[in-house]
Amino acid sequence: MFALFFAHYKRFTQQSPNSFVKFESFNCKRAAPETKTPASMDPDETELVRTSFAKVAPIKAATAAIFYDRLFQVAPELRGTFPTDVTQQGAKLMAAIGFVVAGLDRLESIIPQVHELGCRHVDYAVRDAHYDIVGDTLIWTLEKVLGAAFTPETRKAWIEAYGMVAEAMIAAPKMRAA
What's the pLDDT tens digit per position in 16-45? Predict the structure, then answer.
């Protein structure tokens, strides 16, 4: 779930607009799961995600606000899992999306962090169904923000990217339990 996935990153620092985002690691009390990397995205789809995200990046605060407004409209039960003022949370969300977008062509470098976040989100009462809600909200937000630039091909690419991240997050706690 993108919103909850990104909710508890400690800090992000972006080195340049197209660079890999580094973050402080956190301690998880459980042993790390065996890392399983999903299939790579098609290079054309990766480029569509990156190009469209580059258009969103300059308006990231507004985009995050639209995202959270929509999320709380469609899933008001999630409102209590976030701070009252989601401004900082929105900044973390956009930084985390940037982290994933930057790593789409080298999934093996980001999947361990994605798995770790998936495991942590079990402690936040995240259910598998939340991933669909957040994914739908993300796609809706991108469509609203990008307008005509959010082509059917771009939509498909974002759905693919989000699906890979959500799948890895959902799988991680199950891998740990095994």
Answer: 333 323 333 333 344 444 444 556 789 999
The verdict on residue 163 lying in a domain is: yes
DSSP labels for 107-164? Answer: HHHHHHHHHHHHHHHHTTT--HHHHHHHHHHHHHHHHHHHGGGS-HHHHHHHHHHHHH
* Boundaries of domain holding 67: 2-9+41-177
Q: Domain with 158 in it: what CATH number?
A: 1.10.490.10
Point out which residues pair with 12 in neighbouring strands: 23
For 132-174, the pLDDT digits (tens) are 999 999 999 999 999 999 999 999 999 999 999 888 888 876 7
In-domain check, residue 20: no
d(CA 66, CA 152): 21
Residue 155 lies in a domain: yes
DSSP state for residue 39 in the 8-state scheme: P
Q: Are 34 and 114 in contact (CB under 8 A)?
A: no
pTM for this structure? 0.78
Tally of domains within the chain = 1
CB 80 within 8 A of CB 18: no
